[in-house]
Design brief:
Structural class: alpha+beta
Strand content: 25-35%
Largest sheet: 5 strands, mixed
CATH superfamily: 2-C-methyl-D-erythritol 2,4-cyclodiphosphate synthase
Strand order of the largest sheet: 4-1-7-5-6
CATH class: Alpha Beta
CATH architecture: 2-Layer Sandwich
CATH topology: 60s Ribosomal Protein L30, Chain: A
């Protein structure tokens, strides 16, 4: 009788926050959101994808976004966060991790994120090569509290579940 290894699952959590500043495009979850300001950052400032990246890296025990893509490295200056997520996906696949699901919250008083949730889900699912139904996006305000509530920042919180892929051996 062939003994199969027990399935291995891991969860990760990621968070990110960036200030809203004039003169930048607002990118959330890889989607352009028309607004008068965008997110400050060394890369494109996409706090949503940054939180997803940290959740995935955390689940796999592979560090964090700042270690992999340091803001001290000019190579990542103004980088498209979609490209960063694709790099992380490749690293996960090389370690035999399969993404089971991603759940995220976008914390923003302005702009209204609800009309973009479907596009963000599609974008993240496409980048990760997973089913649309395994990506969930929620949008919350801060009820006027703090920098987010005052419309000066946007944050994101993400959770991810990974499952180890086992290769059959003969």
């Amino acid at each position: 009788m062939i003994e199969r290894p027990k399935p291995e699952y891991r969860t990760g959590i990621g968070t990110d926050i960036h200030a809203l500043v004039e003169g930048r495009k607002l990118m959330l979850g890889g989607v352009y959101v028309p607004y008068e300001a965008g997110l400050a950052g060394h890369s494109d400032g996409d706090a949503v994808l940054h939180a997803v990246i940290d959740a995935l890296l955390g689940a796999a025990g592979m560090g964090d976004i700042g270690t992999l893509f340091p803001d001290t490295d000019q190579k990542w200056k103004d980088a498209d966060s979609k490209e960063l997520l694709l790099i992380v996906r490749e690293k996960l696949e090389a370690k035999d991790w399969e993404i089971a699901n991603v759940d995220l919250i976008i914390h923003a008083e302005v702009p209204t994120v609800a009309p973009f949730k479907g596009q963000i889900r599609r974008c993240i699912a496409g980048l990760l090569g997973i089913d649309f139904a395994t990506v969930n996006v929620k949008a919350k305000t801060n009820e006027g509290f703090g920098d987010i509530g005052a419309g000066r920042a946007i944050a994101a919180t993400a959770a991810a579940l990974l499952k180890k892929k086992y290769r059959r051996t003969l």
